[in-house]
Input
Amino acid sequence: MTLEDPHPSDEEMLLAADGELPPGRARTVNRHLAGCWTCRTRMSQLETTIRSFLEVHRSGLDPRLPSATGPRALLKAQLAELAAADRRGPVLRLFPLSFTRTVTICLSAAVLATAAAVLLTHSPRGDRAPPVIPEANLTPGATRPTTRADVCRSDPDQSLRVIPVSVRQKVFESYGLPHARPEAYEVDYLITPELGGSGDIRNLWPQPYSSTVWNAHVKDALEDRLHEMVCNGTLNLETAQHDIASNWIAAYKKYFHADTPITR
Amino acid sequence: MELSLPVPAAAGRRPARADLESEVIALFDQLRSPLLRYVLSTGVRVQEAEEIVQEVFLSLYRHVRMGRSRSNLRGWIFRVAHNLALKQHESSRRQGGAAGGSPDLAERSCDPAPDPEEQMALRERRKRLLAVLRALPEQDQSCLYLRAEGLRYREIAHVLDMSLGSVSISLTRSLARLQRADGG
Output
C-alpha cells in the first residue's frame, strides 16, 4: 500500500468482490486490501451482509419451489408439438416471428386469437376437426354444489378462472388433439363457473377461436344472458345449467329468440 | 461463472431441430429453479410463475430456431420472464385480485437454533432484513434478486434496461441499507 493508494469506495469494494472491475483496477484494489486491515474488515462485513440477505431471501422461496418433473415433461411435450407444427408447412414457419415478439413485448390474448385464426384458415391441420359443440360423452358438463344466492353474489368466486396448463393438456388429449396449438383454442367451461360449473375435466372442452359464427364470444353473451335471467328470477339455475350443457347453440337460439348470433 | 450455458457457439449454421429441443431442455434444467425463484420474488403466485417459466422456454425455442442471437441467452431468458411477470402483475391488478403479495417469509424459521433466545434473535434479525428489503424501490429489489440468482451486472442491466453503472450503484445502496439493518 502506498500513500497515493486511497481506500476504495463501497461501490468499488462490491465490484471487486463480484469480479466486475477491469483487471488493472482489480489488481490495485486487491493490493490495497492486502495492506489495509480496515478495508479487509469492510470487505468481510460486505460478505456477511450478502450472506444474511441470501439466507433470508432463499429461506422464503426455496420451500415453495415445486418439483421440476411435471413442468419438465410438459415443456418437452410442448416443444415436440412446436417442432411438429414446424415441419407441417411453410405458413407455420412464418408465425413464430410475430409470436416471439408478441410474447416478449405483450402477450395479448386478442393478438393471439387473431393470429391463430389466420393460421388455422391457412393451414389444414392433421388433428381432428375442432369441435364447435363439445362431445357429450367427453364433456357432459359438471357442476359444483351451488345455490342461486351463490351465483348471484356481487363478488363471485374467481378461483376457477385460471385453468392449469396440465388440465388444458388433458382436455386436448381427450379430444384427440394432442398436437393442438394452445393458442388456437380457448379451453372453456361448458357450464360457466358463474352458473355453478366446476373445474372438473368433464366440464371443459377446447373451443376453437377459428369458428367464425358460433364462437367463444357468442357463448359469453349466452352466459351473461342466462346469469341475468337466473338472478332476476325468470329462470331457475338447474334449467340454465341443463340447457347450456346439452346444446349451447340451441340454448342461445332459445334464449335470444334468434337463429344466428346477434351482433352487438 | 461466465455463462457456462451448453450452447454451441456455431453461429452461422442452424442446428437440427432435435438439437434445439434438447438444448432448450438443458437450459431448462439449468435455469428453471433460479428463474422460478426470481419470478416468485416479484410476488407472482406459484401456479402463475410456473406458467410464465413454461412460456419463457417456449419463446426461447422459437428464438433460437429463428437463428437469433445466442449471446447473453441467460439475460434474454430472465428479461422475457421479467416482462411476463410485469404483465401478470398488471392483469391481476386490473382484476382487482391481490397479486399474491409478498410471501410470509418472516414467519418461516428454517434452521432451528439450539436455544430459544438465540432463535428469537435470529427471527428478529430476519424480520428487520425483510422490512428493509420490502421498503427498497422495486428496481433495487429486482437488481438484488437477479444478482442472487447469479446474474452478472451486464445481464442485470439487460433484463432491467439499465446502465451498468446504475446496476452497481443500486446494489451498493441496497447492501448498505441491509448492512445497517443487520447490525453491521
Remarks:
- DSSP finds eleven helices and two strands in chain A.
